[in-house]
Design goal:
The protein has 195 residues and is of the alpha/beta class. The chain contains 6 helices and 7 strands. It has 2 domains: 39 residues, no CATH class; 150 residues, Glutaredoxin. It is 36% helix and 17% strand. The longest helix is centred in the N-terminal third of the chain and has 20 residues.
Length: 195
């Protein structure tokens, strides 16, 4: 066997190293309830904020305060009790880049009467109203100028979705292994069974 390995130009020490690394990844995956340290090796979409899943706010507890500005300039806190489930979606500042995701969020709100989508964008309110009207989007938009909000919610990529129940507790967080479309479907399914 070793002769075959050497004939292919592979070093025995290198193969042993690869095997040890793989054993580490498998053990970490099993011990961390399905979370893999491989995530740490991937790039996040926000380069100055790497993703660490243990920085996510805890599920089934009150959501971190979320002081943001609505389009009329008033400061509001979305992390509170509400008559509907609240889907908080952090979008990037590139509106055109986020348009397809915004349409998916609009479809979620249209198909789930129990869900109110709260869209957060990092830029100024200027121009958002005309952008929404021109693309027939009827979501609640807020400007999120505070980096503290994104840190509190561990936003390491855009869009990232969080679901709050009617009492203001976090009940769903989009993981890095979930696409936005998958998360939209999971939130829709959750909304059908939520009381």
């Amino acid at each position: 066997m070793l002769a075959k390995v050497k004939s292919r130009g592979l070093d025995k020490n290198f193969l042993l190293f690869v095997l040890i690394v793989e054993v580490f990844f498998v053990a970490a995956f099993l011990l961390n309830h399905g979370w893999s340290p491989r995530i740490l090796l991937t790039k996040s979409q926000i380069m100055h904020r790497p993703f660490y899943p243990f920085n996510d706010p805890p599920l089934s507890q009150s959501a971190p305060p979320l002081a943001i500005t609505d389009l009329s300039g008033r400061t509001v806190n979305l992390a509170k009790a509400s008559p509907k489930l609240q889907a908080l979606v952090f979008f990037s500042g590139c509106r055109e880049c986020s348009l397809s995701y915004m349409r998916e969020a609009q479809a979620l709100q249209d198909s789930s009467p129990n869900v109110q989508v709260q869209a957060l964008v990092p830029d100024e309110a200027q121009g958002i109203t005309s952008f929404l009207a021109s693309h027939h989007l009827h979501l609640n938009f807020y400007t999120n100028s505070s980096d503290q909000n994104e840190k509190a919610y561990n936003v390491a990529w855009y869009p990232r979705l969080f679901l709050l129940d009617k009492q203001g507790r976090l009940v769903y967080i989009q993981g890095q292994d979930r696409t936005f479309s998958t998360s939209i479907h999971e939130v829709h399914d959750f909304s059908l069974t939520a009381k």
